[in-house]
Amino acid sequence: MKITPQAYRKEAVKPIWCPGCGDYAVLSALQKSFSALSLKPEEIIMVSGIGCSGRFSHYFNTYALHGTHGRAIPTALGAKAARPDLTVLAVGGDGDGLSIGGGHISHAARKNPDITYLLLDNNIYGLTKGQTSPTTPTGYQSKTAPYGVSEDPMDPIPIFITYGISFIARAHSFDVKQMTALITAAIKHRGMSIVYIHSPCVNYQALSWDKLREQTKELPADFPVDDKMKALVPAYSKDPLYTGVFYKVMKPTLEDRLEIITETARKSRHGLSVGMSAKQVMEDFR
After folding, report:
1. What is the pLDDT of residue 13?
2. Which of 24, 151, 192, 264 maximizes the CB count within 10 A of its CB?
3. For the chain, what is the radius of gyration of the CA atoms?
4. Which residues lie below 8 Å from residue 68, measured CB to CB, with a gap of 6+?
5. What is the CB-side half-sphere exposure of residue 191 using CA atoms within 13 A?
6. Residues 117 and 211 occupy one common structural domain
7. In the chain, which stretches have pLDDT less than 70?
């Protein structure tokens, strides 16, 4: 029997985001994705970071952990290594994922764990009342930059591409249909996937809903998602601001690599011939 989207919600805990927040739409899209994939709640682990998006783990009827600052990715990675049979997701904001926790993404990408990371970006620290985040536009006046932000904002999609993350997509929270499809595809992908979601703050509007709508354009259906160099061109584009899958490639996962190491160690200990090395497995994927 098909599991309804509502089955994944923890009814006793109601979301407390501000009225009009895009995170409600992300919540709805994630429920629909779980339902489309017929995942049982007990087959899901959700790890959340800090900020408004850190509350996601509170609202789902799944295994969940609201972790410490910037540690959603390594916690999710550890959960997947321990329970490779479960579907593991991490959810965090631009501060959690690109500031204090930014260093974890590159090293997780090297391991390619089969986890999905939803990074919700509103270009501001909304929960703590409007301080500058790594993606706040230059010139924007915030609580920590009253004369305007002087630094250049980070550009996450090109960074993710150069890290070699095996599935990279961008969505906007005002398009629930596309967001649901991209999250579903990311969860189905075998390897590390990131869905970078623009979700503007309704109180501190460093990121404008209207501007997003005007600039947004979907990547063409025939876009070559397996070409890293070609992916960088639309990734750097600001007008139009593209949504969709930028990059997707198959390569060994963390689970594959751990299995090889375990098997190699076991055979070596018993004097048996060693099978394929990690290097050979990588070459086979290529």
Report:
1. 87
2. 192
3. 19
4. 50
5. 18
6. yes
7. 1, 270-286
Q: Which amino acid is at 239?
A: D
| Pair (28, 121) in one structural domain | yes
**pLDDT the model gives residue 219:** 98
98 and 73 in contact (C-beta within 8 Å)? Answer: no
Provide the domain count of the chain. Answer: 2
Distance CA 73, CA 50 (A): 12
Which residue's entry shows tokens 């230059």? 138
pLDDT reported for residue 51: 85
Please tell me the predicted confidence (pLDDT) of residue 284: 59
Residue whose entry in the numeric block shows the structure tokens 């139009």: 240
Contacts of 66 (CB under 8 A, 6+ apart): 48, 54, 55, 57, 58
Question: Which pLDDT score is estimated for 180?
Answer: 98
Same domain? 171 vs 43: yes
Q: What is the CATH number of the domain that holds 127?
A: 3.40.50.970
List phi, psi (to 5°) of 189: -65, 135
Q: Are residues 21 and 127 in the same domain?
A: yes
Contacts of 20 (CB under 8 A, 6+ apart): 202
| 143 plus 167 within the same structural domain | yes
Whether residue 195 is found in the same domain as residue 275: no
Examine the domain organization and report whether 159 and 270 are in the same domain: no
On whether both 203 and 262 belong to a single domain, the answer is no
Residue 18: domain span: 5-250
- pLDDT score at 50: 85
